[in-house]
Design brief:
CATH topology: HIT family, subunit A
Radius of gyration: 14 Å
Strand content: 15-25%
CATH architecture: 2-Layer Sandwich
Largest sheet: 5 strands, antiparallel
Order of helices and strands: HEEEHEE
CATH superfamily: HIT-like
Shape: globular
Distance between the termini: 33 Å
Structural class: alpha+beta
Amino acid sequence: MSTLFDKIIAREVPAEIVYEDDQVLAFNDINPQAPTHVLIIPKKPIATLNDLSEEDAALVGRLPLVAARLAKQLGFAEEGYRVVMNCNEYGGQSVYHIHMHLLGGRRLNWPPG
């Protein structure tokens, strides 16, 4: 079954793409929780963190590297930022294609809310 993110990768659904390489795509979240809220996804469809295999280690390891690169390019790497990955319903996952949230551009309090 195709997810919203699969459709964004295939360019069937528009998104404001901020980064792309052969393995990873990053785009602005349509419901931002911070001044900058970017979703970073592997192009390979993996439903949840529970579905990862050893062969996915290098691919998934690229996600925080892209997050750090974008934080620097967007000008908030030194001040700080948050990266989050959710897993399944109770973890807050709403699209079943793993993704990393990059949030920055303001002080992020913990716990959120």
